[in-house]
Write a structure and sequence with these properties.
The complex is a heterodimer. By secondary structure, chain A is α+β, with helices and mostly antiparallel strands. Helices cover 31% and strands 23% of the residues of chain A. Chain A is built from two helices and four strands. The longest helix of chain A is centred in the first third of the chain and has 13 residues. Chain B is α/β, with parallel strands linked by helices. Chain B has eleven helices and 13 strands. In chain B, the strands form three sheets. Chain B has a seven-stranded mixed sheet with strand order 2-8-7-6-5-3-4, sandwiched between helices. The longest helix of chain B is centred in the C-terminal third of the chain and has 31 residues. Classes of the chains: A alpha+beta, B alpha/beta. At the A-B interface, helix 1 and strand 2 of A face helix 2 of B.
């Protein structure tokens, strides 16, 4: 399996959905998906992005003042 | 029917609020933040949207600093019980609602409480607050406007004083959120408690608290948050720290629609409309023989909450006649604010409180005044009858 996608994790579902909104406003392609079990046991969601966009997304989150709990290949 | 009890809860709501709640129940329904499926995510987005609209309304930069509670009473309990420790000193005013006074009194004597007296019109002097500050003052907590006489308190001035002195400043915006401009930066407020079901037009069962970054409050409740689920420790980040268990999602859907309505109409326009009605009501009531109106008498210095009494007629009789004979709904008594009534001089008999809202019309006010005048006349006639009967003995 190629690492085409990466998962951007957040501390809470609220933060995930807030990030989705702001990143979409910034023109970035993100999708809310259930968080993969191997990454977290939370009952929640994460943002799926194209792995190659990781650095851009990290920058955009920083610019928006949003903290994430890491970007992991999936 | 003329509904003049908006200070208790607003009614009716904008149509969009009913629609949003019905739509949520029929088409979404899921619990937000508890699963990853599309309906749960949709529910989560609705809740986030409501948070964001409130952030826009109050000038809050990060919507996640707004946590939802059952009502503003819960928010104020979170402030008082979450912030204060033994040996702390708190300053409040003599116009507060029991949602502030009761939690404060329950912490005495380990926590010292100073109640700064307001004038009989409900006016607070910010210098009196400053004079009450002690080395161990931890919190100043004030209602933005009185739920008895509507008088606005000088929150911006007090906020500036509290900020200068490094004291936490909390405001109970139950009577102002949505009806009067609030900017958390302009008033230097650290904790803003609001209710969803008054001037924000949401349903009962909604409310919340803005918590400024850097303020630490112990949560009232702990439980499942859909985050950090591998730990048995409450998360320390917002909003999850203060939002355990399933929220009133259908309520928050309604609240979101209500806040959207307020943003669309504009607080300035809402205020202008209510100000005009308040002025009309105060001026008209003043001209009725035997009617005493409380507060400053100046609509600019208050929100749309007007308390009055009629000489020689018990307040409960007035309210009953208004409801039964004229289908005018108001609230009589002490309005859960005994301290405010002591301040304005109406304890223990209370007042009749009329609270117009955004959907109240000039015609409603005019008819209400006619009804009050008729009741006052009835009261005078009854008094003459009693006097005549007593004279015959």
């Amino acid at each position: 399996m190629t690492d085409r996608y990466a998962a951007v994790l957040f501390p809470s579902v609220s933060a995930t959905l807030r990030a989705e909104k702001l990143l979409k406003q910034a023109g970035l392609a993100v999708k809310v998906v259930p968080v993969p079990r191997q990454l977290s046991s939370d009952c929640g969601v994460c943002l799926r992005i194209e792995a190659k966009m990781a650095a851009t997304v990290a920058q955009a989150l920083d610019a928006a003042g949003l903290k994430c709990d890491g970007i992991h290949p999936i | 029917m003329i509904y003049l009890d908006n200070a208790a809860t607003s009614w009716p709501k904008p149509e969009s609020v009913y629609v949003a709640m019905d739509r949520f129940m029929r088409e979404v329904g899921a619990s937000p933040g508890r699963s990853g499926h599309r309906l749960a995510v949709a529910a989560g987005r609705i809740v986030l949207e409501t948070r964001e609209r409130l952030a826009e309304l109050f000038g809050v930069a990060d919507p996640l600093r707004i946590v939802f509670t059952l009502n503003v009473t819960e928010a104020l309990n979170l402030v008082i019980r979450g912030l204060l420790h033994d040996g702390d000193h708190v300053i409040t005013s003599s116009m507060e609602h029991n949602s502030v006074m009761r939690p404060l009194r329950a912490l005495e004597p380990a926590v010292e409480v100073s109640v700064v007296p307001c004038s009989t019109e409900g006016v607070l002097d910010p210098d009196a607050v400053a004079a009450a500050i002690r080395p161990n003052t931890k919190l100043v907590i004030l209602n933005h406007a009185s739920n008895v006489v509507g008088t606005l308190l000088p929150v911006a001035e007090v906020g500036a004083i509290a900020r200068r002195r490094g004291i936490v400043f909390a405001v109970d915006a139950a009577q102002t959120a949505g009806a009067y401009p609030i900017d958390v930066e302009a008033i230097n407020v650290d904790l803003l408690g609001f209710t969803g079901h008054k001037s924000l037009f949401g349903p009962q069962g909604t409310g919340g608290l803005f918590i400024r970054d850097g303020i630490e409050l112990e949560p009232l409740k702990r439980g499942g948050t859909g985050s950090r689920s591998e730990f048995e420790v409450q998360p320390d980040f917002l909003p999850d720290c203060y939002e355990s268990g399933t929220p009133n999602t259908v309520g928050l859907a309604g609240l979101g629609a209500g806040v959207a309505f307020v943003l669309k109409e504009g607080v300035a326009d809402i205020r202008a409309h209510e100000l005009a009605l308040t002025r009309q009501l105060i001026d008209s009531l003043h001209s009725i023989d035997g009617v005493r109106v409380y507060g400053t008498g100046d609509a600019q210095r208050q929100v749309a909450v007007v308390s009055f009494t009629i000489d020689g007629v018990s307040p409960s009789d007035v309210a009953e006649w208004l409801d039964e004979d004229y289908e005018i709904m108001c609230r009589v008594g002490l309005h859960c604010a005994p301290r405010a009534h002591r301040t304005i001089g109406t304890f223990p008999q209370g007042t009749i409180r009329l609270s117009p809202g955004y959907f109240t019309t000039e015609a409603d006010i005019a008819r209400c005044v006619v009804a009050v005048a008729a009741i006052a006349a009835r009261g005078r006639a009854a008094a003459r009858f009693e006097a005549a009967a007593a004279g015959e003995d």
